[in-house]
Write a structure and sequence with these properties.
Largest sheet: 7 strands, mixed
Structural class: alpha/beta
Helix content: 40-55%
Strand order of the largest sheet: 7-6-8-9-11-10-15
Distance between the termini: 47 Å
Strand content: 5-15%
Radius of gyration: 28 Å
Number of helices: 24
Oligomer: single chain
Shape: globular
Length: 626
């Protein structure tokens, strides 16, 4: 059966195993071909093809529920659930999401995008099932990387303690498993999963306990020997201690073996962990050799595995290189990241100063508080993190860093729009969740030169500082002033008497474009690079209050709680007339897409901005965030 013939999971359940193997190869080819054009998560998806096939052959979605941790390994699931005909649109504007989406398919029961959440969600789904008196199965597929996140252990502890019926597939792609060990483990797993084995075990234990005098100690001794042997052969001690039945490890590319274990796991009335060992990037040699580079990859050439060439650095690379130069002169500087050394370019720092680089895994909360500890110990930590992921460490930022006024610098990559990974990865909320915290400064560079200046200023400040910047390649033709950056002082880039645009970070270039077009139409608009979001430039704000002309705030961020809100608050707290028109992203989640498409989606492209500002200056009104 060809992939194009599969409309629903029912279509694959009767396939013989040789056809399953052929289908798996076709799915891999489709994933490789599509990701090479669109970019996306390659290694993790190639490693999960057979697991996904086996799951859909044994379980029956949408009645049974699958929850994918992170969701970046759900491509094979999408191919088997009626979306193969649209798979070439994945991660494109208006196309399929790169993560599970409930409005895409009834087979997607829970939306994910951040790591370590699936077990918690699955426990909730399982308890909802039990309360409703239903009997379907709930399966959480979790990668070993996600287990570096603390939420997993909270959920495991809760589920194991309550004995909630749940199946967890642990997709372990970090360890190899030799054929002889794999066969032995598969055999033991089958025995331990079988009803006969568990019944016999209970009968033997009961019989031993009935023997006078020696029965109880003999039973304990045998139980101890059994557990030691299990730990030696199967490594199940951790999950067993948490109250889970452990099955495995088994070969995660052996469909037949997995189906046997999955069917027997369905018979157990207790929480189960099935340990599947897979090879990340399986089926594409380039990804097998360099799985980390192909975890999340831009478009690439299939034959060579090389990414399409860029002529300019990304902002994250500029930040890392600047920090390397600073670290050469100051031994206190250390870099921290949460499993994102490549995505944030922090790995460049590691290459130079390995002993001063800390990758803590998918554990943003720990990373923030550890950074606070480093700072309290006399170091100067710089935390490289995506804007969307720092949300996970909000309490730690407030309580452990800012409350103690510690010199931790947060380098917020992927701030703003333009992420093909979709709504879970858009960096649109960082200003709102940071600027209200006492002691925190929030900065946004308009170009790479200003980013370097901000790193130095943050170091000199010696207090909590967040610098937000986009993923985009830096512009080689920035025409902004080269006067030194001063925290709390904005730079006027273009003079004008009719109105003022206060632009933040990535929107400065758009503000200049719009102002020039308005100038051609007889309207002289001032453009200010509002590089310091917190604190505001009090001198500039006082001047605007005296000027009494319309002020437009422009930001790639949600309007509620953003930079525009800060300007409004300042105006409300001081006397004077200040007509503020906020322009940003309305309060909604933005789908995946390239930067240009998302600017049009949110009416932040040059054409829309020109029309909105012109409408106000010609006597109309701007619809904030529309």
């Amino acid at each position: 059966m060809k992939l194009e013939q599969i409309e629903k999971p029912d279509d694959i359940r009767a396939l013989p195993y040789d056809q399953c193997a052929a289908l798996a190869e076709e799915m891999r080819e489709t994933i490789i071909r599509t990701v090479s054009k669109n970019g996306g998560h390659l290694s993790s998806n190639l490693g999960a093809v057979e697991i996904t096939l086996a799951l859909h052959r044994v379980f029956h979605t949408p009645q049974d529920k699958f929850v994918f941790d992170v969701g970046h390994q759900s491509y094979a699931h999408k191919l088997l659930t009626g979306r193969s005909c649209r798979f070439d649109t994945i991660r494109r504007y208006g196309g399929l999401s790169g993560f599970p989406k409930c409005d895409e398919s009834e087979h997607d029961c829970f939306e994910t995008g951040h790591a370590s959440t699936a077990i918690s969600a699955a426990v909730g789904l399982a308890r909802a099932r039990d309360l409703a008196g239903e009997t379907h199965h709930v399966v959480a597929m979790v990668g070993d990387g996600a287990l570096t996140g603390g939420m997993c252990y909270e959920a495991l502890n809760d589920c194991g303690n309550s004995k909630t019926r749940l199946i967890i597939i642990l997709n372990d792609n970090e360890m190899s498993i030799a054929k002889n060990v794999g066969a032995l483990s598969n055999h033991f797993a089958e025995l331990r999963a079988s009803a006969g084995w568990n019944t016999t075990k209970r009968r033997v234990k009961y019989s031993l306990m009935q023997i006078p005098v020696i029965g109880v100690p003999l039973g304990k001794a045998i139980h101890s020997i059994k557990n030691s042997l299990k730990t030696l052969l199967l490594g199940d001690g951790f999950f067993t201690a948490l109250g889970f039945k452990y099955l495995g490890p088994i070969d995660g590319h052996d469909i037949r073996a997995m189906e046997k274990i999955f069917r027997r796991a369905k018979q157990l009335d207790e929480p189960v962990v099935i340990h599947c060992v897979t090879k990340k990037g399986n089926g594409y040699r380039k990804a097998e050799k360099r799985p980390e580079e192909f975890h999340g990859t831009p478009p690439f050439f299939i034959e060579s595995g090389e990414a399409l060439k860029r002529s300019r650095k990304l902002y994250g690379e500029v930040a890392s290189d600047a920090l390397i130069a600073m670290a050469k002169k100051d031994a206190r500087i250390v870099a921290v990241t949460a499993a994102m050394p490549l995505g944030t370019a922090a790995g460049r720092f590691k290459a130079k100063y390995r002993d001063r680089f800390f990758d803590v895994g998918i554990a943003e909360e720990h990373a923030v508080t550890m950074s606070a500890g480093l700072a309290r110990g006399g170091m100067r930590p710089f935390f490289f993190v995506y804007s969307t992921f720092l949300q996970r460490g909000y309490d730690q930022v407030l309580h452990d860093v800012c409350m103690q006024n510690l010199p931790v610098v947060f380098l917020l990559d992927r701030a703003g729009l333009g992420n093909e990974d979709g709504q879970s990865h858009q960096g649109l909320f960082d200003i709102a969740y940071l600027r209200h915290i006492p002691n925190m400064a929030v900065l946004a560079p308009a170009d790479s030169c200003e980013l370097v200046e901000m790193l130095r200023a943050a170091m000199e400040r010696g207090a909590p500082t967040a610098i937000r910047y986009p993923k985009a390649a830096v512009s080689p033709n920035a025409s902004y002033p080269t006067s030194p950056f001063l925290l709390g002082r904005w730079r006027t880039l273009l003079m004008g008497a009719d109105a003022t645009i206060l632009a933040v970070g990535s929107m400065v270039s758009a503000a200049l474009n719009v102002a020039q077009r308005l100038r051609d139409e007889g309207l002289n608009v001032e453009v200010v690079n509002a590089s310091t979001i917190k604190p505001l430039d009090g001198l500039c704000m006082s001047r605007l209050l005296e000027k009494g002309k319309p002020v437009f705030t422009l930001e790639e961020h949600v309007l509620e709680g953003g930079f525009g809100s800060a300007v409004l608050e300042y105006g409300a707290a001081h006397t004077g007339a200040l007509a503020v028109h906020m322009i940003g992203v309305e309060g909604r989640f933005i789908p995946q897409g390239d930067h240009a498409s998302l600017l049009r989606e949110t009416a932040l492209d040059d054409e829309a901005l020109h029309g909105r500002i012109l409408a106000v200056l010609r006597g109309g009104r701007v619809n904030n965030g529309a």
